[in-house]
Hints:
The chain has one domain (21-124). By secondary structure, it is an alpha+beta fold. Helices cover 34% and strands 43% of the residues. The longest helix has 18 residues, at 2-19. It has a five-stranded antiparallel β-sheet with strand order 1-4-5-2-3. The chain contains three helices and five strands. The radius of gyration is 19 Å and the shape is elongated.
Amino acid sequence: MKKNLVIVALCALLVVLFASCTTFTFANAGYGTFKGTELGTFDITVKSMELLGVPGSMNLANITQGKGQEAVAAAIQAEIDALGGKAAINVTVEQNTSLIDILLNSITGSIIAGEEVHVTGTVIK
């Protein structure tokens, strides 16, 4: 009986841990002028390590870069410039906080909080 209770408790803990990953998606956005010839697509990931905060949420300061939205905008602009375009269309931004990021945040007492922003889109001229 006690062994079955331990197994059920461990299974419940695993379900809670794996269900705790968070994702926020913003899809089909535009960045710049919206008419033109398609030059190519991009698929980038921006990793952010935050200080004194919650992964994927509020924080006091970022360790690896400036504010998250500024880093994403800079990465999109870099892709536009690399392909010689003027704008980006069909931009999808997906903010992820993984189980590892949540565990690291819990272990450090909310001192370190990591997240990853995945951005895809099409560059036009």
